[in-house]
Amino acid sequence: MKVLIGVTGSIASYRTPELLKRLIAMDIDVEVVLTRGAEKFIGAASFEGLIGKKVHSSLWEDPMAHIHLERSCDLVIVCPATAHLISKLNSGLADDLLTSILLAKTNNVLLVPAMNTNMWKNSLIIKNVQDLEKKGFSFLNPDKGLLACGEYGVGRLPQIDMIFYEILFHLEKKSFKNKKVLVTAGPTREFIDDVRFLSNPSSGKMGFSLALNAWIKGAEVTLVAGPGTPDSPDGIHRIDVESAEEMKNAIDDVYDYGFFTAAVTDFSLGVRRKGKPSKEDWLKGGIALEKNPDVLYSNIAKFNKIIGFSVYSQGTSLDAAKKVFKKGADYVVTNNVANCFGHNDTDVELFDNELNSTEFKEMDKISLGRKILDIIGDEND
Asked: Residue 100 sits in a domain of what CATH number?
C-alpha cells in the first residue's frame, strides 16, 4: 500500500513526522508533499530522513508530478489541513503541487484540519467542509483542547493514533461489512470497599486491537471496555464498565462474532463495605469471596461465532483451549501468563474447534488482531 501525505502551513505540522513513523512501521510506502507554508514551519530534511526519498514541493519540478503522484497512491491525506487549503480546494484553485494533486484525485482523500477554534466555527469554513464532504472528500475533525494561540476550544490536530487508525480504515478492504462484532477488553475491578479492589494487570490492548481491526474491516463494532483499555475511534460503539456484572449486563444484543478477550476478575466480595475500613477491621472480619459470573458462558446464545481467550501458567496451551471449548467457543486463543499482560508484543496460539492450531510469535497486538480476523473471516465467509 502507498499513501501521500500533504503538509500545509500550520504549527501542528511538527506532529506529522510521528504519523509517518507509524505508517512506515506498518510497511506502508509514503510520499510527502509540502506547501510553501509548510516549509516555513518544518524542513524537507525532517521528512526525507524518515521516508528515505525526496520530498515534493514544487509544481514545476516535473510538469506531470501531480498526475504521477496521484495515480501511484491509494490514499491522499492532508495533515494538517489549514483553513486556507480547505477554502482553496472548495473553490477549485490549483496553484501549487498539493492542490493540483487533490483536484486530480477523484476519490480517497482524507483531510485532517487544525486551526484556531473561531476559524473552525466560521460559517465560511463550515460551508466549505460541508461542500467538500458532499463532493466525496473525507474529514477527521479536530479535537478540543488547548490551542497554540493559548485559547481553549475545538481546533487541535487529533491524536496521532486516531489519525493513524482513520488512515488504516480508508485503506483496508471491508471484508467484515454488514457484520456485527462485540469485543470485551481489559480487566474488571471488584471493589471490596470504597478504596480497595480486586483486579489484574490486563491492559486491554489485545481486545482493543480486535475491535479496531474489525472496525477497519467494515464491521459494526461494540467494545465493552474495562478500566485502562486504550481510547478507541469514534466509529466504534464503546461501553465502559468496571465490574464483571456490569460487563455481563452490557451485552444486550445479538452479534455475528463475539471476541471475549477481557481478563474478568474471578472473584468479588459479596457485600461491598462503605468507606475505607482499617486493616485491623478487615482482618477481624475476614474476607469471604464469591465467584463472579462467566461473561462468555452467560451470553453464549447471543452470538453466531464465539472466540474465547485463555491465559495459562500451568499445563499446556491445548489444555487451556479445551477448557474454553467446553463453554461453547468456536475458536480459542491461548497465551502464557509470562508474556500476555501489558506488552505490545505477544505469543499466542489460535485453535479451531477441531483443535487445529496456528502459532504467532513475538507479534505486535495490532498486527495480531488483523491476522486473527483474517483467519476467522476467511473460514466463515
From this structure: 3.40.50.1950
